[in-house]
Amino acid sequence: NRTLICRSRELEGDVTSDEEERGIPSRSLISFAEFNHGAVKNKCQTVREVFARQLMQISGLSGDKAAAILGQYSTPYSLLEAYERCGSEAEKEKLLSCIRYGKLKRNLGPALSRTVYQLYCTPGALT
Question: Keywords in UniProt for this one (predicted)?
């Protein structure tokens, strides 16, 4: 039942229990139980979390880009449904290209959109 605390490194060496009296600022972060719960390696993940991890395995697809895709399509199933609604192969390849990501609100672009399409919709190796 302990709490992890962040302290300033103004003083070298061990910090004793009288930090507050000496004016060393500290801030409570999380309890040990919360840390322990978050550190479990085999905890259950949602479909959204697994989908995000899959997307981030694609070369050139960062966390910001994955988050932008997840904003539109929260599961692989929703993405596959969107591909099915497209009329042509070219439309499917460009489906994700106009999704905006990051602070600058850039487009994902046609190359990355095509890669994601190939990964989820075509059998065999990526081209």
Answer: DNA damage, DNA recombination, DNA repair, Endonuclease, Hydrolase, Magnesium, Metal-binding, Nuclease, Nucleus
